[in-house]
Amino acid sequence: MSITVSNISKSFGNQKALNNVSFSIQKGEIVGFLGPNGAGKSTMMRILTTYYKANSGEAEVNGHNVLTSEQRVQKSIGYLPEHNPLYLDMYVKEYLAFNADVYQVAKERIDIIIEQTGLTVEAHKKIGQLSKGYRQRVGLAAALLHDPDVLILDEPTTGLDPNQLIEIRKLIKEIGKEKTILLSTHIMKEVEAVCDRVIIINKGEIVADKKMDELREVEEQIIEVEFDYRVEEMLLNKLPNVTHVKNVGGFVYEVTFNTIKDMRPAVFDFAHDNELKTLQLSRKNKNLESLFTELTS
């Protein structure tokens, strides 16, 4: 395993940021670490990168314990924090040369990374002159300089415009062919576009851990229907393949079915048989966004 986390807990005073968190990530996976703001994502990232120490539990990166082998862990990891700490008055190549000295990396590596991250044209510009998208590329380049096996990216696309988003996602996917990547975000589309797997955290606890293929194959749909007057939920539960019925306000109901077959005709027939008028009828498949909402609301 590239990353192993076992029963990690972390508190700040009386506030518990992480509670008995466990997960593992295999070499070559791109894993999305998804959760609402304040869920514990950044705290977990900082424990893995040795910036924070856990109160209890263990974590390893490339077989190195984050508590007892800090330097080995740091050499194994490339880290892009949420607030990318760049020197805006330095030139791109100058900044990467500075980082190469810190990591004791051969200067030849700088040109390789500049090309890999698409910074060839910007290499002789000041970082302060770059768009946010290119600044993120500089941060990624710095994280990749020492050729780490594991990349930890904390909210790497926050504040980017749509074109910059596409470019950075493409770059992360390309890098992920050779590296293990843990990507923290609160953006569902980010995970769907880039990741092989998603771990969802809420209030400091893991609430889901699924491969993206499993999520895409979920045979479940939600029919939202509005009638002209209130219906007993027990009556809607008699529909075939129903797993859950919920009144979402007024005369509107969400009916969940465990089948991919379109159940709108069945709901329409139900309304007709019970002399109900259907004012609105729509279908949505259960996806990452609905799972996230369900688990974190």
From TrEMBL:
Its EC number is 3.6.3.-. The keyword Transcription does not apply. It is an enzyme of class 3 (hydrolase). GO terms for molecular function: ATP binding; ATP hydrolysis activity. Residues 3-228 form the ABC transporter domain. InterPro entries: AAA+_ATPase, ABC_transporter-like_ATP-bd, Motility-assoc_ABC_GldA, P-loop_NTPase. Residues 201-228 form a coiled coil. CDD domains: ABC_DR_subfamily_A. Keywords: ATP-binding, Coiled coil, Hydrolase, Nucleotide-binding, Transport. Belongs to the ABC transporter superfamily. This is Sulfate/thiosulfate import ATP-binding protein CysA. It comes from Flagellimonas maritima.
